[in-house]
Amino acid sequence: MDQDIIDVARTIRFYLPELVGDEADAYDNEIKDLLAQAHGGVDVDGEIMAVLTRPRVKKWVTQVFEDEHHRPPVLLVRDHGTVKPPPSPVPTPVLSDKYECPVDGNYVWYRPSVGYPVPDCKDHPGVKLVPAASDAQ
Fold this sequence. Notes:
Distance between the termini: 23 Å
Helix content: 25-40%
Number of domains: 1
Number of strands: 5
Shape: globular
């Protein structure tokens, strides 16, 4: 399985309401099921990519794949394809803390700044997301 595809699928889940509106739950359920299959060792890269390349999410997904850390585009400032800090005094961060579900890791959220409270996992209500161990930004 391609870890990049898994990472992007885990990351998009939080942003689906913004990206696809009323279809967010349907997209999320499909991605969640595919991630569970991947966790069980099933190669579902093609099926995940079929979801990630649908017209309503394709641009967002392309931007996430372009970032080496697979961060959501809202956290990046781009200039001619390179990621760089915003000009002062705009406080938009480029690097942010990555949080994930401590149960299965299939739900990821990036904290835009320290003022944002860490949410619960969508799949496991009452379970707070925790800092990602291997690649916190």
